[in-house]
Amino acid sequence: MEFKDYYQVLGVSKTATADDIKKAYRKLARKYHPDVSKEADAMARMAEINEANAVLSDPEKREAYDALGRQAPHRPGQDFRPPPNWDAGFEFSDGAGAAGGTDGEFSDFFEQLFGRQARTQRAHRATGQHRQAPPDAEWGGTPPPTRGIDHHAKIELDLLDAYQGAERTLALRGARLDDAGHMVHEQRSLQVKIPKGVREGQLIRLSGQGSPGTGGAPAGDLFLEVQFKPDARWRAIDRDVYQPVAVAPWEAELGAVVEVQTPAGALEVTVPAHWKTARKLRLKGRGIPAATPGDLYLELTVALPPAHTDAERAAYTALAHAFPRFNPRATPGA
Fold this sequence. Notes:
Helices cover about 30% and strands about 25% of the residues. It has eight helices and twelve strands.
């Protein structure tokens, strides 16, 4: 995936005002719009221009894009992958910009950065959470009360939060335009209650935490998309949890009862005899809690003890003598 310099596409500086961006977009659209342009690459150029404008004309997306550029600077055309959870802490409104309904029209770069927001917008509308106001005619020609725009953001949690529930303080960054068209950075903090059993990708709804409504209509809502922080101890897939567990060679071959620290607490687990590396031990119902909880899978690996002393080295020598025909490089099953 190639990095896109949206400022370069529109030919504006990184300090450009909203009015500068609007003028640059209109000038380029007059030149490259396929309906009027004679340029050979008009359609492709217009797609790039529309994409750049969709980001830079939206204060919140522009704020996040600028932060990404500082975090992972790249030149246009360079191979690029956004850092994990790069947009955590940024707040986006559903009504601003042109992201909604553009899947398939913009580049992979845009889709990786902002495609999630566009899909979330459509999900809200499909479930009736993003409601349209009635037409002016029904209100005697005066502007009707309008429900506030929904917002969305990402929240990073520890997997343990899904097992136990939690309360977290969430700091959100956003942006707006002042009267002169300059971008103003904003930040707010919210106390968020994390329900027990939440899973990755789930939306937590905070009623009334979106944009204010007009004419006495209610405010929009804030939807928080749950992401789990990377953790070497375990990982989650839907409600199932996978945890690597190291066992000693004698435990793997002879069988043993071992204590394992899991997200569900300390558990005594029976390791069957002749257990092979990479096989999984399933603990039913020990995954993320729910009416139908997930399962916990222990991925067993054999850990070899180091031989530092003469006695330890002698033990390995005796083991080699005890298994003279054992060849770890032989064809499996031979």
